[in-house]
Amino acid sequence: MYMDSNNLTGEAIIKLIDRYKIRQVPRFEKLQKIFIGKHDILNRTMDAGKPNNKIILDYPSYITNIMTGYFMGKPVTYTTDNVEDHDYLLLIKNILDRNNEDKENVELSKEISIKGESYELLYIDENKNICFTQIPAEQLFIYYEPNFNKKIDFAIRFYNVTDILSEEETLKIELYTSNSIKYYTKISDTELQFNNEITHYFGEIPIIHFVNNKEKLGDWEKIISLINDLEERLSDNANELEAFRNAYIVATGLGLIEPEDFEKFKQVGAMALPDKDDKVEFLTKNINDDFSEHHIERIIHLIHKMAMIPDLSDKNFSGSVSGIAIQFKLYCMEQIAAIKEQNFNEGLNRRLRLITNMLNFKELTQYDSRKITAIFVRNIPANLTELAEMAYKLKGIVSDETLISQFPFVTDVQAEIEKLDFDAEKEIKRELKKDSYVPAMGYEYSMLSEERGDNNG
Q1: DSSP letter assigned to residue 130
Q2: Domain range for residue 89?
Q3: Do 145 and 252 sit in the same domain of this protein?
Q4: Over the stretch 145-182, which tens digit does the pLDDT of each residue have?
Q5: Distance between CA atoms of 223 and 155, rounded to whole angstroms?
Q6: Same domain, yes or no, for 134 and 183?
């Protein structure tokens, strides 16, 4: 049964939260634990007395950090094609800067890499500033209208508040609709206490849903089994080495050997055998090192292949590599980043729209967020000589805005274009002033005399 925000009872809200806690929250919590290094290998047990090494490989963190740095390591910039929208763009940039948008985008990108999705909440602070902040996926869910518009019908945020004295936890709930926010406290398994309702003026539900991909999967979620297998193989190898160091000694033909004889043997590292047929050796298991090493290398290769993340320790990344060569090596990762960009840009457009809605309400303006464009630039080592040659060859074919955005040291494309225009205007004025200059007669005569070598003295 479809349920819209108008007929949501307290009991219905509790049921929706409980269902979300059962179906989604455990997955998010598991992925977060894996990301911070709490892997399944830590739960492995062995028989008493046997080695039980538990080697953790931080591949999830490695993949997330590499992909997040590549995708969002360089801040998103914003531009507009319309000169008349310049003041509007400055307003937007001021709001984004006040909210430390660069860091916010990195944190959002990081969480969608881990969990496949994340949320952002827009609000007005006590100083009447437009603000936005990330909300963990474990604390918020949204319901869309049952059509193809992808319009959010309502959103529910829930979180525990702990009393510092009694340490008792209370569940706080916020219900977001297109025009208001209702605040509740859970007082029983089926009952909520209504606390307050405020009206907001964002024009839409002030929640943004950022997703990693259509399936809402994290960047390494599908290769967890490979990571677990690699950790088990390396831990087993460590166990074998430790068992070899602690191997039993088998003495053949020596009869009963006293413990002090073994202690003396360990101290001097040698033992005299009375008879040529006597034998002393370690009881060890034959290990096929080549097979084990090959299996480990194959798993490592599969991890990078399936995650589409290059192995940056590979010798192919060393030395002087051209920009084109780097792009080919990062081709697979770029395909993932392209999907991320499409989805992330959708979230940024919604953020701009919500901010603009509030600006129009507060300032009685009619700004249009569609006139602002977000520009993404990948964070890769750049060959500036190649970029300069490319920019020179594409001048007049590609817009200056696009060309300038390719240079890694340019953090604000629009500002750079304005500086170029200002420099060009200064140069024109200088040339005009130079062309209109007429020297005084005496100065001109003096210069001519010097050129002829005249001497009046």
Answers
A1: E
A2: 1-245+292-380
A3: no
A4: 887 777 899 999 999 999 999 889 999 999 999 999 99
A5: 31
A6: yes
